Structure formats: structure tokens, C-alpha cells
User: Fold this.
Amino acid sequence: QVQLVESGGGLVQPGGSLRLSCAASGFTFGDYGLRWYRQAPGREREWVGTITSGGKGTSYARSVEGRFTISRDNAKNVAFLQMNSLELEDTAVYYCNAVKSYETYWGQGTQVTVSS
Assistant:
């Protein structure tokens, strides 16, 4: 059974940090690129960033570049989204997405709320 499970969300003050995890099972995680997306209330889902299957390449949305970092550990079938200097506008449900050619898997999302 294919699964992607996000965790690590929660409530944090502006300027704080959180690290989200995306745990994979049921497929060969290391063969897939991994993307993070987020969706704020009333807004469309937004791409946050991508890490290549081997973990050597990353790219980020301009809104998070320099504050967020994506990494992965293929031996443990897990990816991470380290979020620093969080802003109110970062409040959203965060999703991980594994992609290989036309195959794509999504997690259920984890809520991140930035509030004072």
C-alpha cells in the first residue's frame, strides 16, 4: 500500500521554525522526485519546492527561498521541509508529493499555523 504521511505541523510564532517530515512507504522512494506544496484557506495549492530523487538538487518558490530547506534520507524513506523565519503568510496545510514520470503520490497534509 502506497503511503505518504506528513507530520511536524503545528502552531508557531512569527520568526519561529518548524521541520516537517514526509514518510514514504509502499514504493521505491529513492526513485521519485519530491515536492512540497501548501494551500492556505481560500487560495489555490502553491508549489513550495522540489528535491531531486537523489537529493542533490533543490529548487524553491521565491516566497520561501532562503528560509525553507528541503532534504531527504532515501535510506529511511523520508523527506523533510525545514522552515525558518516563519511568517504569518506561511500559514497553510503543507503537502508532500512524490513524482516519477506520470506516477504521483500525495500525502494527506499537515497544518502549519503561524500566529502571535
Observations:
- DSSP finds no helices and eleven strands in the chain.
- Residues 27 and 62 are 31 Å apart (CA to CA).
